[in-house]
Amino acid sequence: MDAAEQRALAREVARRRTFAIISHPDAGKTTLTEKLLLYGGAVREAGAVRAQKSARYATSDWLAIEKQRGISVSSSVLQFEHRGCRVNLLDTPGHKDFSEDTYRTLVAADAAVMLIDAAKGVEAQTRKLFEVCRLRHIPIFTFVNKLDRQGREPLDLLSEIEEVLGIDAVPLNWPIGMGSDFAGVYDRQARCARLFSGGRHGTLQVDETTVEGAPDDPAVRAALGSHAGAVRDALELLDGAGAVFDPALVAQGRQTPTFFGSALTNYGVLPFLDRFLELAPPPGPRTSTAGPIEPAAHAFSGFVFKIQANMDPDHRDRVAFLRVCSGHFVRGESAIHVRSGKPVRLARSTLLQAQEREIVDEAWPGDVVGLFDPGVFRIGDTLSAEGGFAFDGIPSFSPEHFARVEVALVLNRKALSKGLAQLSQEGVVQLFTEPGAGTAAMILGAVGPLQFEVLQHRMQSEYGVPLKLTPLPYQLARWARGGFDPEEFRWSESVKIVEDRDHRPVLLFRSPWNLDMTRQKQPDLVLTETGDAPRGDEADTDD
Ligand code: G4P
Question: Does residue 125 contact residue 99 with C-beta atoms inside 8 Å?
Fold first, then answer.
């Protein structure tokens, strides 16, 4: 790399921000996403996304946006520019299409925005997604949404975040009023009140008046009107007893900068976006078998975090989503596929982004590239121009839905085994077996039920096997470490012992209660929520 290329790389890395939104369905992710795209100039008009709402539950969260823009369903990253930053917003499907891909996507993100409905607080799906972010120690920013409706007390919400998630919530602004009285936010850092008016969904219209001064300043008090006392008291309390904002703790994922607003009326969205882009990190080093790989100090490298098959039988192509980690990606160049040790040409690459499914000629660290996959890629695979190292793999996440494969009904057992082995390697579902029971006892696990539908569709269309599944009554899986006595569970109705693809013992539990009981009875048993990722440079023996 010459000096000019080096400078270009450093510049592109510094301006990249790659993040995902984590939330429970209905918290307002689609609405907020649309507003961010509008501010980023990636869409020109809003409203159409909402208009398609009724059809949305049956499809993808992203689909509404994609339909509006007339682009491919497989779009997985929305890219926009704002204040000199190149922003990559990764899709985290949340409704019917919530799946293991949602978790895997978080492995490709450098930061997360946790979106919370002010009336509901921390909900189940948010909690699960938060745990994955915590494992990765990425910074998490919180946006408390729907302040234009009567919700819970803001202080109450902060306590809930701290208690349920175990992270310090540090409000960088504070709401002025709530519901129909929601007038704006007090910016604790800039020390000014931002008063909004005229906000309306469907446009970016919002008028902002800024009144500078401390909460006690007469001009601020006058501007806050009847809210002045409540805002001053809350801020005094936070100044005295609340956690002090510390960017180092934010970077480690131990403190979450918290913002209040309303995605629907635009109130507080732009101040949030501006601060978020200032505080969120650019792509940093990623750990690998050869130590940390610095984005600007290495030639092109990246890892596959998602593989998507086209469901259209006329276009049975697959796209591997690669997160670029270092160097300059240039279409047509070659890189080493580390697991197989073979070179691959990066010839057909698409950037699946909001504008359209377009050919990408180049990409930089933080970007996501869709690579045409002739069937060689797997989740967690490393591609590298230099070769010689593999990034940390992507762990398996605890499934929540389980089903038994009805083997007796399948005529072509060989195709069944091959299909299940290949599709589980690709990450479509997780494949477990009951020890000692052979292929007769194949159990599948999925984070979301849509994964089973995708599997059945692909088994039929790619392997000619109609797959019948019988749901099993388990709700969670834990990988067991250290020795344990399988006899303890032999007759248990509520706990089942299985093995994952790599023959690691896994316990399936009917309910969280059963998990707690097992922990109490066997305190020495170590149970983890994720299964270790296979090392990315190890060839798979199942091939
Ligand atoms: P999701 O993607 O997280 O599932 O949420 P989505 O944006 O679809 O929003 C869910 C519902 O919450 C929608 O209402 C949306 O209008 C509403 N919403 C989102 N942000 C705000 C906000 O800041 N304030 C208020 N008051 N509502 C908000 P809906 O009734 O389901 O749909 P629609 O009739 O508005 O289209």
Answer: no
